[in-house]
Write a structure and sequence with these properties.
GO terms for molecular function: catalytic activity. The protein is α/β, with parallel strands linked by helices. It has helices spanning about 30-45, 65-70, 85-90, 110-115, 140-145, 150-160, 165-170, 185-195, 200-210, 220-235, 235-245; strands spanning about 5-10, 15-20, 50-55, 95-100, 105, 120, 125-130, 165, 175-180. It has two domains: about 5-195, 2-enoyl-CoA Hydratase, Chain A, domain 1, CATH 3.90.226; about 215-245, no CATH class.
Length: about 260
């Protein structure tokens, strides 16, 4: 049995999932895909987990699909066929997911970054949609990336495959922030702490709300949104939050610091 390529750890309500395959720049090999998917399932099923952090060892966050495994395989045997499940797990996770990048991401690696709720990278991190330069299409990742990027940037970067830096990644919507390397841990911790203050069910419902198409006009959506809002105000979680606010204490879902 080969050593694991994805590590899973839970501390204080935060599940940290670490890609640990630096020999191939954390490429999405069959083993890494399997272990990553299993770790995401584990975190999402654990009531003690409030926030998920996706990070890595080595100098590269993720180089995309494992091209050694892709070489010579037919369309039905390509590892990319398994990748939509991982992107869906990240995108629809009821627990907020934070991407923590101490290095570059390419292709499918960017697809995962885009599928998370919050993404933070060091200033030195770089990015590229390198697919066209090897004669393939950034098709699967487009479903998570395009909702994040402004259209002009998407056309430019998907079609040229050019490398861009973390500053531009923030400007076009791929990252929430970029920081000096010695501030990466504290910046991620800041986001994790803020996310953990939200009610678990409220966070899941808000994530679902954010992913749905907007109604053509506010008037078309008020009935459904009012029902959702009123239901949460009256819910056990909502009443706990309201009571905690009145009593000037933390709600019972906030992890102990």
């Amino acid at each position: 049995m080969a050593d694991e390529l994805v590590h899973y750890d839970v501390v204080g309500g935060t599940a940290t999932i670490t890609l640990d395959s630096p020999h191939n720049r954390n490429a999405l090999s069959a083993q890494l895909r399997r272990e990553l998917s299993e770790s995401l399932d584990k975190a999402q099923a654990d009531d003690a987990v409030r926030v998920i952090v996706l990070t890595h060892t080595g100098p590269v966050f993720c180089a995309g699909m494992d091209l050694k495994e892709a070489r010579g395989a037919g369309a039905g045997d390509q590892g990319v066929n398994e990748f939509p499940k991982i992107l869906e797990q990240l995108w629809t996770s009821p627990k907020p997911v934070v991407a923590k990048l101490a290095g570059p991401a390419r292709a499918g690696g960017i697809g995962m970054v885009a599928a998370t709720d919050i993404a933070v990278a060091v200033h030195e991190a770089t990015f590229a949609f390198s697919e066209v330069r090897i004669g393939v299409v950034p098709a699967v990742i487009s479903l998570t990336v395009l909702p994040r990027l402004n259209a002009r940037a998407a056309h430019e970067l998907f079609l040229t495959g050019d490398t861009f830096d973390a500053k531009r990644a923030v400007e076009i919507g791929l990252l929430n922030s970029s920081v000096p390397a010695d501030e990466l841990d504290s910046e991620v911790a800041r986001y994790v702490k803020a996310l953990a203050l939200g009610g678990p069910k409220a966070l899941a419902a808000t994530k679902d709300l954010l992913s749905k198409p907007r109604p053509a006009t506010p008037g078309e959506g008020f009935e459904a949104m009012n029902k959702l809002s009123a239901g949460f105000f009256a819910s056990e979680e909502g009443q706990e939050g309201i009571t905690a606010f009145a009593q000037k204490r933390k709600p019972n879902w906030v992890p102990e610091s």
